[in-house]
Write a structure and sequence with these properties.
1108 residues; mainly beta; Methylamine Dehydrogenase, Chain H; five-stranded antiparallel beta sheet; five-stranded mixed beta sheet; 3% helix
């Protein structure tokens, strides 16, 4: 058995490649359908914008088109993928699910794939589907009279360099328009009539010698008909009876959307993000001219869908997709575009690094995302997001508490904000706005240490010299307790009926609250000063606590006292030298805990026995409980000094959060959700690197100017504010930054940025010249130190044993940092290794170097110190075209190739023969049919701590045979099955085998009803035999439950949630192994189980499950 890597997706695809609008879910409902690389989203257009389905497709989507065959009342959906598969989908309104009407394989292994992208089109009269997949071929899939697809056939297409093909409207026979380029690079337009006898007949009209940039056709519907030919400088309207043209500003238009049913207006999006309106001027169905107008700026569009009432969806592969509104009048800047909403897009990711920006032990991924003007840096972290509802600038906040006007009120009324020398009261007014008010009984000229609601509709305020009891209705002072002479109150806490405070000198005072009374019940003297206290009620009485927790300064301990007599029952030494700064008694799911925050940011938790006060199981965020276990999650805020609950009518279930100079009201969103922060750059960031010592990022970027040549930079950014601190311009317009590294050298205490460049001259197929530039950061600026010219592009740089290792074209070069007589430093070549085709990436571990080759897969090199040479140690002899490589351990390596595959290879250092030592064996394989991996995609594995990356990245080593995953490809067939399995089902090369037997001993096995409920509440009823587990049942019935380890209890990907507690209690108790696996599951709940461990039995009839 061989070892391979199990891979899960942390973030679904975010770039929008296609979109369309039509009546898909019903004849009366308008739908927006979006393709995000390998998923389709179906939205119902309502004021709320409801999403009714989000469905994975097993391949990258190449075509997305809606059409309506004869006799149908609603639209069907055609999808093709880049692996030459297609399907036709229909929405079943009764079951609210997708049904596959037809699917198949349209590949041709002996033909040359087209270089200009696959094209899928549908005849407007739904007589046939046309596919241009290979040069010189046009595949036809005809419909019969009942709207069913018949067997397809190929027609030879004379034009080889096809740029675009579209079906034309208003033709008696199916007619295509072909835009092509001849051998002299001239572009022409021609029409063909398609006959169902495997042939073309040249159409009645054509147009030659078009704009050299023409590459897009737009068919015009009746009554005008004809076609628009979109070029870089000219737009031409052509029909048998007319030809009109208009000159435009030089640009590249790649996306369009029709506005009117008659096709008289179109929205055009260009490569600079400008949105234009093209109008066909006509009189009595006769075209008289064209007119174009600039509307405004959007993201760079990959698709445009006009919805209704001036609302447009702009899908983007280079930036954030947007929902925009076209206004009738321009704004102050002359733009008609109003952005209603933006949708985050991480792609395309060309580089990334993993850093701990907040220094809290949590890695954040910083990506170079987007392109051109939509280029940006994205900071991706895992945790809880705080959705900001309102904020106000307030400096110097020292504490906050929310209060009610009455204990019976559902919402808080007051927000008490404490400062160093005053206390201010905020309250919600009738317009749901926070405004300052007064509580007359409170002392407002001093700092408040604690506030709380009290019994009998009272409020309690603790300051450094007193405890004040105030009526919440009249706001007048009712009673007051003064601190002893010569002592001030340092810390305090309270419940609705109790106050506990500590004064200087180690005095701990317990006070009880009555109706207008404050009674000192007990006072004790401790040997040390108190650092923090709490007595939050964790028993049955929410107004009274029987225990108090106290943190101490000198002996670094936490103590538990019994109230009201302040009897010490537990003393827990924390160890170390960091004092406890905050303690909290709390309960989750019936279990009592003591939480203790230390001054260095660590958080400890103790399980508390409330009867004995015993503390146990302590260990070092928002804290929440799931399946009776405490879980921690970071938030998307930094430098929060104070926080308290604040639930008002305007902001229900909210928090008041104090940050430096700001008070924010916010709500918590989903637990453990990826949080994405966008830093617009306005140019393409190609490479990124972080330098911890100077707290900076360095990036290599390219800025494209519309009327100028592109400019290349090395930029320095602050790692907190992301402001540009310094810029170094690469003066030669053809020199681009190709790699970047932060490193130090032997015998040099400084830390440097090293930048590798390449001169990309147009006449060269491969760069023959480059440089290595060395910079140091001084006073927040990039200072140039040295340079080294190279004989090729510097694709990759690595720090290596105090030296610099570079991948330059076909060789690996090692440089040492030499000190010259004049005190300056210079890079000097020490040794090199040749024999590669092209080495775009490498990784190092000790003296070993893993090199990814463009054509020769993975090579392992070793550096020999004594001899000063680099030699080959082992090689993968397979001809893989690699884009990235990573070292998993001393003998196992991870590679990514250009065919969307991840694979692992292993070298056998202890093999008995030299030949066996030199060869590496493929031990794991994962077909990434969804995404082409970027050059540095595997860096996250490198930079996360080795002992943590299995759970962080969702990677788990499984035992699996490589040959088990080889499956035959699909053939054309018509099926009426549920969507998730039916679409390209036979292309799922990673499906594992499982038993589907429901007949034993010649007799049918008894079955029960099991219900799977999807995220939209849609139920899928299936029949499952007694004795089968839920994972097997899901697979037999096309339920998308993964189960990567095939039920071997080695992963948590078959995680299901039992929706009814009565059924959950009927299940067998989970084993310790299952509970350990569930700890890694996404969306864990108290009724979570692994599907492979749930065995169907009669009493489970009617069980309802959902997949998180």
């Amino acid at each position: 058995m061989s070892v391979w890597n199990y891979v899960v997706t942390a973030q679904k695809p975010t770039c929008v490649t296609h979109s369309c609008v039509g009546n898909f879910t019903s004849p009366q409902e308008l739908n927006l359908i979006i393709a995000r690389c390998t998923r389709i989203e179906i939205h119902l257009l309502t004021p709320q914008g409801v999403q009714i389905a989000d469905v994975p497709v097993y391949g990258r989507i190449a075509t997305l088109e809606l059409f309506r065959p004869h006799g149908e009342t609603q639209d069907l959906l055609l999808i093709t993928i880049e692996k030459y598969k297609f399907c036709v989908l229909q929405w079943d309104s009764e079951s609210s699910e997708l049904i596959t009407r037809a699917m198949g394989d349209v590949s041709d292994c002996i033909r040359r794939p087209t270089d200009n992208g696959q094209i899928g089109i549908i005849d407007p009269d739904c007589r046939l589907i046309g596919l241009h997949l290979y040069d010189g071929l046009f595949k036809v899939l005809p419909f019969d009279k009942k709207g069913q697809l018949n067997e397809g056939f190929n027609i030879r297409l004379p034009e080889l360099q096809v740029l675009d093909i579209k079906f034309l409207y208003g033709c008696t026979k199916p007619t295509i328009a072909v835009l092509y380029q001849d051998i002299k690079d001239a572009r022409h337009f021609k029409t063909y009539e398609v006959y169902l006898k495997d042939k073309f007949v040249e159409g009645p009209w054509s147009h030659h010698n078009l704009d050299n940039g023409a590459d897009l056709l737009i068919p015009v519907p009746p009554p005008l008909c004809g076609v628009l030919i979109i070029g870089d400088e000219t737009i031409v309207y052509c029909s048998p009876n007319a030809c009109k043209a208009i000159q435009i500003r030089p640009t590249v238009i790649k996306a369009y959307g029709r506005v009117d049913i008659d096709g008289s207006r179109y929205l055009l999006g260009d490569d600079t993000g400008l949105l234009h309106l093209l109008v066909i001027i006509h009189e009595k169905e006769k075209v008289t001219g064209l007119q174009i107008e600039l509307l405004g700026e959007t993201s760079i569009a990959s698709s445009i869908s006009y919805l209704d009432n001036g609302v447009v969806f702009v899908g983007s592969s280079y930036g954030d997709s947007q929902l925009i509104k076209l206004d009738t009048l321009p704004d102050a800047k002359g733009s008609y575009v109003q952005i209603l909403e933006s949708y985050v897009n991480l792609g395309p990711i060309v580089d990334l690094c993993v850093v701990d920006l907040e220094r809290q032990g949590q890695g954040q991924v910083v990506t170079c995302s987007g392109a051109y003007k939509d280029g940006s840096l994205r900071v991706v972290s895992n945790g809880i997001g705080i959705n900001e509802q309102a904020s106000v600038e307030l400096q110097g906040i020292k504490g906050m508490w929310s209060l009610k006007s009455s204990l019976d009120e559902a919402f808080e009324t007051f927000l008490v904000v404490s400062f160093i020398s005053e206390t201010r009261i905020l309250a919600m007014n009738i317009e749901d706005e926070l405004e300052e008010t007064e509580i007359e009984g409170f002392s407002s000229q001093v700092q408040t240490l604690f506030c709380h609601d009290a019994v009998y509709n009272q409020l309690v305020q603790v300051t450094s010299d007193s405890v004040r009891l105030v009526s919440s209705t009249t706001r007048e002072l009712r009673n007051k307790w003064d601190s002893p002479a010569g002592f001030t109150v340092n810390v305090a806490t309270a419940t609705a009926s109790q106050v506990l405070l500590a004064t200087g000198g180690g005095h701990l005072v317990y006070i009880e609250i009555g109706d207008g009374t404050l009674t000192e019940v007990k006072r004790i003297l401790l040997e040390y000063e108190v650092s923090c206290i709490d007595m939050n009620p964790i028993g049955n009485n929410p107004n009274y606590s029987q225990l108090a927790a106290v943190g101490m300064w000198i002996d670094i301990s936490v103590r538990i006292f019994v109230l009201p007599d302040l009897t010490l029952i537990t003393k827990e030494q924390l160890g170390g030298e960091i004092i406890p700064r905050s303690v909290l008694l709390c309960a989750f799911e019936g279990i009592s805990y003591l939480l203790c925050a230390l001054g260095d940011g660590h958080l400890l938790n103790f399980q508390l026995d409330t009867s004995s006060g015993e503390l146990r199981e302590h260990r070092p965020a928002v804290i929440y409980s799931n399946n009776k276990k405490l879980l921690y999650s970071n938030v998307n805020l930094k430098e929060v000094s104070h926080i308290c609950p604040f639930s008002s009518a305007a902001f229900p279930d909210s928090l008041a959060i104090a940050r430096e100079g700001e008070l924010t009201i916010g709500t918590i969103n989903d637990i453990q959700k990826l949080q994405i922060r966008t830093i617009p750059v306005g140019e393409l960031a190609r490479r990124i690197c972080h330098q911890k010592q100077t707290r900076t990022f360095a990036i290599c970027s390219i800025r494209n100017h519309a009327e100028e040549s592109e400019m290349n930079f090395v930029r320095l950014l602050d790692d907190q504010t992301f402001e540009f601190l310094s810029t170094y311009l690469l003066v030669n317009a053809f020199e681009i930054g190709s790699s970047i590294l932060s490193c130090s050298f032997t015998d040099d205490k400084n830390v440097y940025y090293c930048v590798g460049t390449a001169y990309a001259f147009p006449e060269e197929k491969e760069p023959t010249k480059g440089r290595i530039l060395v910079f140091i950061v001084k006073e927040g600026k990039l200072q140039f130190i040295a340079e080294k010219e190279t004989e090729g592009a510097v694709y990759s740089l690595h720090a290596f044993n105090g030296k610099l290792l570079a991948a330059i074209n076909h060789k690996i070069q090692l440089y040492k940092w030499m000190l010259r007589d004049d005190g300056t430093r210079v890079l000097q070549s020490e040794c090199e290794h040749r024999g590669h085709i092209l080495a775009p990436y490498m990784q190092t571990r000790g003296d070993f170097i893993a090199v990814s080759d463009l054509m020769k897969s993975i090579t392992i090199l070793i550096y020999k110190h004594e001899e000063g040479v680099i030699e080959e140690r082992a090689r993968d002899c397979n001809a893989n075209w690699l884009s990235a490589v990573e070292i998993l351990d001393d003998d196992t390596y991870l590679g990514a190739d250009d065919c969307y595959n991840l694979f692992t290879v292993k070298k056998y250092s202890e093999a008995s023969t030299d030949e066996a030592c030199d060869r590496m064996e493929v031990v794991g394989y994962k077909s990434m049919i969804f995404h082409r991996l970027s050059r540095l995609c595997s860096r996250i594995v490198q930079e996360l701590p080795r002992e943590r990356h299995l759970s962080k990245c969702g990677m788990r080593i499984l035992q699996r045979s490589y040959g088990h995953y080889l499956r035959s490809s699909a053939v054309l067939e018509r099926q009426n099955r549920n969507f998730p399995e039916a679409v390209f089902a036979n292309n799922r090369k990673l499906c594992t085998s499982y038993s589907t037997a429901s007949v034993k001993g010649g007799q049918e096995t008894e079955k029960i009803n099991v219900i799977f409920v999807d995220n939209n509440g849609v139920e899928n009823h299936i029949k499952v035999p007694i004795g089968m587990n839920i994972l097997e049942a899901a697979r037999e019935n096309n339920i998308p439950l993964e189960g990567a380890c095939d039920g071997a209890l080695e992963c948590a990907t078959c995680h299901v949630i039992v929706m009814d507690m009565k059924y959950y209690k009927k299940l067998e108790e989970p084993t310790a192994e299952e509970e350990n696996m569930l700890d890694n599951a996404y969306g864990l709940t108290e009724t979570s189980r692994l599907g492979c461990q749930v065995i169907v039995k009669p009493e489970l009839d009617g069980i309802r499950l959902t997949i998180p």
